[in-house]
Amino acid sequence: MPRIISGTAGGIKITTLEGRNTRPTTDRAKEALFSMLGDIFWDIDVLDLFAGSGSLGLEALSRGAASTVFVDQNARCASIIKKNAIKCSLWDKSRIIKAYAGKAIRILSEEGNRFGCIFMDPPYDKGLVSLSIEKIVSGDIIGNEGILVVEHSDKEKPDAERFGFAELKSRNYGTVNFSIYRYKKG
Fold first, then answer.
1. Measured between alpha carbons, how far is 23 from 21 in angstroms, rounded to an integer?
2. Fewer CB within 10 Å, N- or C-terminus of the chain?
């Protein structure tokens, strides 16, 4: 069972959706990712797109993020995220939007939200990586100097540079690939 690695909820085991439709990020891969990211989370707002169990957004909250918006279209995932956030005592800093990523980005844009870090873990090889990055930028929901973390397959390397992002790091952990970018507006 996956767990929160560090911070105020460190060690708490979280629930994931059973079945083959989701790919929960392993503790080992998540620990490596957050080690690469360092202390960026203190008092920033985070968006967890294609959130699944909410593992990445909850980890960010546990490490000091001000808030996390979790987005997943699956009602069962939304329910699991809420249960996990409550179990970790992080529900008061959480918001769940049960919608497709594009619709959620539009809602967040209309509300004037801007995030310091966005996690994105779309279903592999469906063309959702570039489409989602384009919507993030056109919706103006990532702050200048904001961090974008994309979990992706070998076949679908993000082309974030064409949208104003500079790649900071890229790592492979078995079948999991993380690419980390910084946004430079304009």
1. 7
2. C
